[in-house]
C-alpha cells in the first residue's frame, strides 16, 4: 500500500527532497509549511503535474492549534495518514551565539529552539496518532542532526534541541509500539540548506576535514534514509546518522 504522508517543513531544502522522492515512489504527500506558502504550493503543483498526489497544508509546529488543524486538513485531503515525517526545524535563533555564552543564550532563544525542534515533533505525532493507527502501517520519521549526537563547534546551542529529539524518538517508539514505528535520521551539514547558508567558509572546510569521506552531506542520501524507515515494518527506535563519517571520531 502506498503511503499517505505529511511532511512538516516539506517545502524547505531537505523537506522538498523528501516530498519529491515520496511522490516519485507513489506516495500521496501533504507538504506542511509555516511561512513558505508560495514554495509549498508551487512544489505541490509540480508534483501533481508529474502525476503525483500532493497538497500544501499550513502547519506551524510551534502552535498546538495550528498543528491540530494542519494535521486534520492533511488527513482529509489525502484520505487519511499512514506516515509522518517531522522535517520542520530551526537553527537561526542561536546561530550567532558564541559557544559557552549562556548570558547571550536567553530563555526566549532556548524556548524558540525547543518549541520547533523538540516540542513540534511531539505535537505533530500526538495529533497524527489516530490517523496513523487507523492506517494499519503507521510510521514516524524524525529529522535530527549529527550535532544532536555530540556537540561540535557552533552547533552547541542547536545541539540540545536535537539531542532531545533523539530521546523523544526512543520514547515514542516504545510507547506507540506495536502499531507505529518511530525512527530518526540525523543529517550532517547539507550545502544549500538554511543552516549552511549562514555557515562561514572556514566552518564548512572544517566539517569536510573532520569527515571520513571528506565531504558534506548529500540531501538525497538523507531522503533515501527516510524512505528506508518508511518501508521497514520491523525497525523502530533507531537512529541513522548520515554525515560522511564525522561521528567516527
TrEMBL record:
Keywords: Oxidoreductase. InterPro entries: NAD(P)-bd_dom_sf, SDR_fam. It holds the Pfam family adh_short_C2. One of its GO terms (molecular function) is oxidoreductase activity. Gene3D superfamilies: NAD(P)-binding Rossmann-like Domain. The keyword rRNA-binding does not apply. Belongs to the short-chain dehydrogenases/reductases (SDR) family. This is SDR family oxidoreductase. It comes from Kangsaoukella pontilimi. The lineage of its organism: Bacteria, Pseudomonadati, Pseudomonadota, Alphaproteobacteria, Rhodobacterales.
Amino acid at each position: 500500500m502506498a503511503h499517505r504522508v505529511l511532511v512538516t517543513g516539506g517545502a524547505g531544502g531537505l523537506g522538498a527532497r523528501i516530498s519529491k522522492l515520496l511522490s516519485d515512489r507513489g506516495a500521496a504527500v501533504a507538504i506542511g509549511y509555516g511561512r513558505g506558502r508560495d514554495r509549498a504550493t508551487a512544489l505541490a503543483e509540480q508534483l501533481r503535474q508529474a502525476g503525483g498526489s500532493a497538497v500544501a497544508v499550513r502547519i506551524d509546529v510551534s502552535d498546538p492549534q495550528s498543528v491540530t488543524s494542519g494535521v486534520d486538513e492533511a488527513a482529509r485531503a489525502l484520505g487519511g495518514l499512514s506516515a509522518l515525517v517531522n522535517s520542520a526545524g530551526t537553527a537561526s535563533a542561536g546561530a550567532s551565539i558564541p559557544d559557552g555564552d549562556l548570558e547571550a543564550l536567553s530563555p526566549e532563544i532556548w524556548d524558540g529552539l525547543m518549541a520547533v525542534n523538540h516540542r513540534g515533533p511531539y505535537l505533530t505525532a500526538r495529533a497524527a496518532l489516530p490517523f496513523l493507527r487507523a492506517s494499519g502501517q503507521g510510521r514516524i520519521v524524525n529529522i535530527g542532526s549529527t550535532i544532536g549526537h555530540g556537540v561540535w563547534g557552533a552547533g552547541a546551542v542547536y545541539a540540545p534541541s536535537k539531542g532531545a529529539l533523539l530521546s523523544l524518538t526512543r520514547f515514542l517508539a516504545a510507547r506507540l509500539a506495536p502499531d507505529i514505528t518511530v525512527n530518526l535520521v540525523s543529517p550532517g551539514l547539507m550545502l544549500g540548506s538554511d543552516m549552511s547558508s549562514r555557515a562561514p567558509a572556514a566552518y564548512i572546510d572544517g566539517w569536510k576535514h573532520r569527515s571520513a569521506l571528506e565531504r558534506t552531506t548529500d540531501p538525497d542520501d538523507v531522503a533515501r534514509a527516510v524512505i528506508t524507515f518508511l518501508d521497514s515494518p520491523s525497525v523502530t527506535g533507531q537512529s541513522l546518522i548520515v554525515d560522511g563519517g564525522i561521528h567516527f571520531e
